[in-house]
Amino acid sequence: MNTPVVCGECGARVLCEKFSPAHTQVQWTGDAATTCPRIAAEVRAGRPSARVRSCAALGTSIAAAVLEGRLEVPADV
Ligand SMILES: [Zn+2]
What we know:
Blueprint: E1 3-6, E2 13-20, E3 23-28, H1 32-35, H2 37-44, H3 56-67
Antiparallel strand pairs: 1-2, 2-3
Bound molecules: zinc ion (ZN).
């Protein structure tokens, strides 16, 4: 299940899905590429936005979402 998470720094909104505690899939929405300055810079450099994961603030927001129970983490198998 995709859970929307908003970057605490730039406000970019992404969809996150946890497959295991160590594996998070992050799907940038179209707007994130223009909202997050770090992603925008990568996209201008020619990288597809779906591959950019350089926003550290977003990583923090995702970790917070997990702690708050908003982002479900499947148990380790
Ligand atoms: Zn950001």
